[in-house]
Write a structure and sequence with these properties.
The protein is mainly alpha-helical. The protein contains 17 helices and 9 strands. The protein has 4 domains: about 80 residues, Arc Repressor Mutant, subunit A; about 110 residues, Orthogonal Bundle (Arc Repressor Mutant, subunit A), CATH 1.10.10.10; about 100 residues, Winged helix-like DNA-binding domain superfamily/Winged helix DNA-binding domain (Arc Repressor Mutant, subunit A), CATH 1.10.10; about 40 residues. It has a 3-stranded antiparallel beta sheet with strand order 1-3-2. It is globular and about 80 Å long.
Length: about 400
């Protein structure tokens, strides 16, 4: 990790969690995995302060723990996860654009709290939505729960790992740290809850002081029963949001290169595969033209023959965003995710070079990307640029580490 990234992680931890958490997090990023007492000794903080700070970091998935063979529990910072805090506003905005205000608040609460149970989350979001509604109107728990189910069905939220409940008596002495497990089949399964109720508005301080304090003991006594989904916690699936951003970039690139109809076809293919294809898969699941035709948006009126022509054009395009897997069922097509991302990254690099050094440098850079290795004389000939200018441009890009020299064989 570079010093700039370390400084950024430190600033993010301080802004969101305070000085103590920032001290613990920065120490773990610098030193690597460490046991509890060594963290307390090296940071100069009290043991109780270190425990509470680690609890906060673990709850937000910013630190993980691991039981070593010697019996010690070591805590390790997840630097990449700290840096993802910068993208929280984008995750929230994406949830709003896909699922409205309810989806926005559900994702926001999960990001603010790290993880929450569904029943607590639904009640909190319903209260927040009720606060923004006109007098006399309230938000039903069932409406919020339906949006949560949609988020889980599309994998934008997922269950957290949990401690397995064994029927056998616990060992004596108990292990220093619990082992968390998660069944992949249950990651997006929403428990069947009968959430009945409506959001509540906050009362003024004067009203609360009298009535709320009087009923506090009674309410505390009634709330001893655990919620129906006790022990089932949910978190935001960051990888799924990044997958959505990737899909949007591919669709936008197709629209710029071809037309809106082509981009809508690719969007449909990506939407059909968004749950069945992992975020790091090289390509989507093969889809037949008949399946794609049936899944096109209702208001998109193109015939089957026109769709086949578009799919053929996409498959024959040199960038190979869409590939043809086989010819059965009218043709089986996939979206080549890795090739699409490589093309997008290449186009971004070329635009940066052109903006900083001009179109001629971009021509040389594009030539080197295509040919991999070229001598200076070959660069001059292929790019059709005078020797002096080509040499100057190569030196400028070399000084910025955009191109590299490689010794030739004697």
């Amino acid at each position: 990790m570079t010093q700039a990234e370390l400084k950024l992680c430190s600033l993010l931890l301080r802004e969101h969690f305070g000085d103590i958490v920032e001290t613990i997090g920065t120490f773990l990023i610098r030193s690597g995995p460490q046991p509890l007492r060594l963290i307390a000794a090296d940071t100069g903080l009290l043991l109780d302060q270190v425990r509470k700070a680690l609890c906060v970091l673990i709850q937000h998935q910013l630190v993980r723990y691991q039981l070593q063979k010697r019996g010690l529990v070591e805590y390790e910072a997840r630097c990449w996860r700290v840096l993802r805090i910068l993208r929280y506003p984008r995750y929230i905005y994406t949830a709003k654009s896909l699922y409205g205000d309810t989806g926005e608040l559900l994702v926001e609460e999960l990001l603010l709290n790290g993880h929450m149970s569904m029943s607590v989350l639904v009640a909190k979001v319903a209260d927040r939505l009720t606060e923004t509604m006109e007098d006399g109107k309230t938000m039903d728990y069932s409406e919020v729960a339906n949006t949560f189910v949609r988020l889980a069905d599309t994998h934008f939220v997922q269950r957290c790992p949990h401690v397995p409940q064994d029927l056998d008596p616990p060992p004596v002495p108990p292990p220093p740290a619990p082992t968390l497990v998660l069944n992949e089949k249950d990651m997006y399964v929403v428990p069947k809850l009968s959430l009945v109720g409506k959001g509540k508005r906050r009362r003024s301080c004067e009203e609360e002081d009298g009535e709320h304090q009087a009923k506090k003991k009674k309410l505390d006594g009634d709330s001893t029963e655990p919620p129906p989904d006790d022990g089932i916690y949910w978190q935001v699936n960051i990888d799924r949001f990044h997958q959505h951003f990737r899909d949007q970039a591919i669709v936008s690139a197709i629209a710029n290169r071809m037309d809106q109809t082509s981009s809508e076809i690719v969007r449909t293919m990506l939407r059909m595969s968004e749950v069945t294809t992992s975020s790091n898969a090289p390509y989507t699941q093969p889809l037949s033209s008949n399946e794609i035709f049936r899944s096109l948006p209702a208001g998109y009126n193109i015939g089957k023959q026109v769709l086949d022509q578009y799919l053929t054009l996409l498959a024959d395009d040199p960038l190979e965003f869409v590939g043809k897997a086989r010819d059965s069922g009218g043709g089986m097509f996939t979206v080549n995710l890795h090739k699409a991302l490589a093309s997008l990254a290449t186009a971004t690099l070329e635009s940066i070079v052109e903006e900083r050094f001009g179109s001629r440098c971009a021509r040389i850079f594009r030539l080197l990307l295509r040919k991999k290795h070229l001598e200076q004389k070959q660069v001059e000939d292929f790019a059709m640029i005078p020797a002096k200018e080509a040499k100057d441009m190569l030196y400028r890009m070399l000084s910025e580490n955009l191109v590299a020299l490689q010794a030739g064989c004697q």
